[in-house]
C-alpha cells in the first residue's frame, strides 16, 4: 500500500539517524503510508515498540499487522498526552516527516494541490472546523497579507490578498475550488515562475488551515520531556520556515535559537548535534521521488541534561 500512498523520503538516512535499538520505544509522528514505520519495525526486536501518529483517517488503511505497532489517530502535537495513556513516559527516538503526503497531494478532492480540481479544503484532519475556503471568506486584507507573507513568502503578498477579496465579491456562497484560486492568482505570478508562485500560495493556506508551525512547535517542546538520554530527534522538513525552527531548536533547545549559559558561562544545551549541515537527497532519489528535492533532514540526540 505504501508504494502507491506515499514514497518515504530520505528513508535510509532517517532510520540511521534514529540509531535504532532492538528493544527501544519509538514514535513515527507522521505515519502516512507507513513506509518509515515498516523500516523501523524491521529493525526492532520482539520487545520493541512503535507508536504512529496521523490525524488523516486515510492512514488507517496502511496499518501493519504487527503487535509491536500502535496507530494513534491524532495530531502529533498531542504525542505526550496520548503516549502517557499507553503507559509511555520516555522514548528512544522521534521521527517526523513533515508536510503533505504524496497521497494527500494526489487526492484532488482534498484540495492540497494545483494538479487537480477539487474543493479548496486542505484539512489534514477532517475534524477541524474550518477548511481553506472558509478561512478565505472570513479573513480581512491585513490578515491575508500576513498569511501570504509569513507562510508563503510571496513577493507583494498584499496583491494576492486584494485579488482574492475582489474575486470573492462576485463569488456566490458555496465551496471554493482549487481552480478558482489558481484563476484568481495566476495573473500575479511571474511569467516564468507560475507554478512556484501558486505552490507557495497553496502552501501558505495549508499551513494556516492545519496550524502546521504551531504543531511543530508543540512537538519540539514535547521532545525535551519525551526523549530519554541519548534518544534521537529526527526531522525532515520541506520549506525554510520549518527548517529554521528545527535548526534553532536543536542548537539551543528553544525556538529562538539562543543558547543559555550557566553561572560559569557553560552552554546549557539539551541536544547534541548528530548532523552538522542538513542531509539532503542525492540525485538518484530526486529523480525517483521528486518530493525529496526540497527535503532537509536534521538529527540531534538528547544529552545527559535530560531529566
Short description:
By secondary structure, this protein is of the alpha/beta class. The chain has helices spanning 2-5, 11-18, 35-43, 79-85, 102-106, 132-138, 141-150, 157-169, 178-185, 194-210, 212-226, 240-252, 283-288; strands spanning 25-28, 49-53, 69-72, 91-97, 227-237, 260-261, 267-268, 271-273, 296-302. 40% of the residues lie in helices and 15% in strands.
Topology:
Layout: H1 2-5, H2 11-18, E1 25-28, H3 35-43, E2 49-53, E3 69-72, H4 79-85, E4 91-97, H5 102-106, H6 132-138, H7 141-150, H8 157-169, H9 178-185, H10 194-210, H11 212-226, E5 227-237, H12 240-252, E6 260-261, E7 267-268, E8 271-273, H13 283-288, E9 296-302
Parallel strand pairs: 1-2, 1-4, 2-3, 4-5
Antiparallel strand pairs: 5-9, 6-7, 8-9
Polypeptide structure, described:
- α7 crosses α8, α7 packs across α10 and α11 runs parallel beside α12.
- The protein has 2 domains: 192 residues, Vaccinia Virus protein VP39 (Rossmann fold, 3-Layer(aba) Sandwich), CATH 3.40.50.150; 102 residues, Putative methyltransferase TM0872, insert domain (DNA polymerase, domain 1, Orthogonal Bundle), CATH 1.10.150.170.
- It is globular and about 60 Å long.
- The protein has 13 helices and 9 strands.
- A 7-stranded mixed sheet has the order 3-2-1-4-5-9-8, sandwiched between helices. Strands 6-7 form a two-stranded antiparallel sheet.
- β1, α3 and β2 form a beta-alpha-beta unit.
- By secondary structure, it is an alpha/beta fold.
Amino acid at each position: 500500500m505504501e508504494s502507491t500512498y506515499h514514497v518515504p523520503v530520505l528513508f535510509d538516512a532517517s532510520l540511521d539517524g534514529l540509531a535504532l535499538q532492538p528493544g527501544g520505544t519509538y514514535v513515527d509522528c507522521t505515519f502516512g503510508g507507513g513506509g518509515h514505520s515498516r523500516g523501523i519495525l524491521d529493525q526492532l526486536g520482539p520487545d520493541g515498540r512503535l507508536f504512529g501518529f496521523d490525524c488523516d483517517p486515510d492512514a488507517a488503511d496502511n496499518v501493519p499487522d504487527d503487535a509491536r505497532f500502535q496507530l494513534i489517530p491524532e495530531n502529533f502535537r498531542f504525542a505526550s498526552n496520548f503516549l502517557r495513556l499507553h503507559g509511555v513516559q520516555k522514548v528512544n527516538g522521534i521521527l517526523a516527516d513533515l508536510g503533505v503526503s504524496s497521497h494527500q497531494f494526489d487526492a484532488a478532492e482534498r484540495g492540497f494541490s494545483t494538479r487537480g480540481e477539487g474543493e479548496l479544503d486542505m484539512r489534514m484532519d477532517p475534524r477541524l472546523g474550518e477548511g481553506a475556503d472558509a478561512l478565505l471568506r472570513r479573513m480581512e486584507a491585513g490578515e491575508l497579507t500576513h498569511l501570504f507573507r509569513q507562510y508563503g513568502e510571496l513577493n507583494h503578498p498584499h496583491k494576492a490578498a486584494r485579488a482574492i477579496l475582489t474575486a470573492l465579491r462576485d463569488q456566490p456562497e458555496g465551496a471554493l475550488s482549487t481552480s478558482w484560486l489558481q484563476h484568481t492568482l495566476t495573473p500575479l505570478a511571474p511569467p516564468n515562475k507560475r507554478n512556484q508562485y501558486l505552490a507557495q500560495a497553496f502552501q501558505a493556506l495549508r499551513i494556516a488551515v492545519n496550524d502546521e508551525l504551531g504543531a511543530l512547535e508543540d512537538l519540539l517542546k514535547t521532545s525535551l520531556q519525551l526523549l530519554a538520554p541519548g534518544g534521537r530527534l529526527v526531522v525532515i522538513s520541506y520549506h525554510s520556515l520549518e527548517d529554521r525552527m528545527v535548526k534553532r531548536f536543536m542548537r539551543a533547545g528553544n525556538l529562538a535559537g539562543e543558547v543559555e549559559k550557566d553561572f560559569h558561562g557553560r552552554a546549557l544545551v539539551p541536544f547534541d548535534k548528530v548532523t552538522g549541515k542538513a542531509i539532503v537527497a542525492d540525485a538518484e532519489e530526486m529523480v525517483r521521488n521528486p518530493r525529496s528535492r526540497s527535503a532537509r533532514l536534521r538529527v540531534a540526540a538528547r544529552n545527559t541534561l535530560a531529566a
